[in-house]
Design goal:
Domain Carboxyltransferase: 1-203
GO molecular function, one term: hydrolase activity
Structural class: alpha+beta
Order of helices and strands: EEHEEHEHHEEEEEEEEHH
Radius of gyration: 20 Å
Pfam family, one: CT_C_D
Shape: elongated
Number of helices: 6
CATH topology of the largest domain: Cyclophilin
Keywords: ATP-binding, Hydrolase, Nucleotide-binding
Strand content: 25-35%
Distance between the termini: 50 Å
CATH class of the largest domain: Mainly Beta
Protein name: Allophanate hydrolase
CATH superfamily of the largest domain: Cyclophilin-like
CATH architecture of the largest domain: Beta Barrel
Amino acid sequence: MKTQIISENTIMVYFTNTIDAETSEKVTQALYALQNSLGNFILDAIPSYHSILITVDILQTGMSDFQQQVEILLSQSSSTARPLPHLEIELPVYYGEEVALDAAEICAHSGLSWPEVVEIHSQTSYRVYAIGFALGFAYLGNLDSRLQMPRKSTPRTRVPKGSVAIAEQQTAVYPKASPGGWHIIGRTPISLVDFERENLSLFYIGAQVRFKAISRQQFIDMGGDLNTSEQIDTDKRAKS
């Protein structure tokens, strides 16, 4: 672990360069330690795969003093770290052809049938490694090697809200309609961002996530939207 002052009020904490559960656990442990012990001096803390970017309240402390406190705190907490309890989040997903916009491409690349793809994707437990890109967008890993594939060479201009997607070693859910270059494998009827919740996002760093395959009718009953006409029209305009 090392720290580096990035600007007049931000500091970066670096861990290893690997993307794995062990490194993610170190980041999660450090994040909780920082929030619990130095939270009065922190305006924001953004964790990633192997680092934490901290925005410091410089009206409360100097950067050099804060950096020293961070290094002392994390060196002490690393020697006494214990596994944190992580609740498992279960997210219902409809993998039907209406919403699995890249089903044919995924099958062609993997050499698997669609039922095999769905089974592999829904039987894996994923860890929340990072949250970014958009509020509620979580990077989940690690994706089974049989489903790993590069991002799309030409991103979609609009991916429907709730779309579940895969790319490289990761899977993710789009919390709102937005551009995206991941391969769409299904859709969830659950809203990922709730402003009534203390934690706006359904996801949090270190959590375990499982996808539960549901039927078309279950998806509709849970408030899911099957409409893809806007997406198809947008793609057609992009190609014209």
